[in-house]
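Write out the 3D structure for:
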Amino acid sequence: MKNLLLIHKKVRKLCIFANMKANFLIAAPHSGSGKTTIARGLMALLTQKGYRVQPFKCGPDYIDTKFHAAVCGRPSVNLDTFMATPDHVRELFQRYGEGADVCIVEGMMGLYDGYDRDRGSSAEIARVLDIPVVLVVDAKSAAYSTAALLSGFLHFRDDIRFAGVIFNKVGSEKHFRMLQEVCDDLQVECLGYLPKSAELEQGSRYLGLDFSEMKEGHTLLRLIAEHVRWERLL
């Protein structure tokens, strides 16, 4: 009887885990770090793999939302605490996220950049929704110095949770191993990287990657599938 009860509890835990929805916000220390490219690439890859992805965008941005909708097949929704109350932002997130397997929020500017210090920032959205942040760090021409940058973001506020870090513009496997050492020392999960790619940079347009250029889009999906631990985000 005890064994049956133990099995029942394990099965119940597995069922609860299987029904959990993945929610996270993709942010960066500053604009131009690659968060738009990685956010859109993850949305496209997960949609391609059969997941129902609900996209969101911080702030009153109506360009990125069009790209989100194109790759996810669902309308992307703006979350903005400047023009809306926190309760309304939570209600939008819950309503549009219903029925989705994963909700991905793309941040804006730097994580803490708002209209008044960090008010209206991506960090405030993460705090209002109580979801973790995936920090995208531009690692071009840097290695262990990123430890100081990351340490500042990880410890600046105790009400922001970090799911992990994705590095962008990584020069080589050796370069990535050095960046992994940074994450190990700071005890934050390394979720992978995107290598430097002239093809992606050439395909870049205003505020992100233009998926009308199919070659660049296919390259991005392949690189994310190969180098980003997207399963961990689920």
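The chain is about 45% helix and 20% strand.
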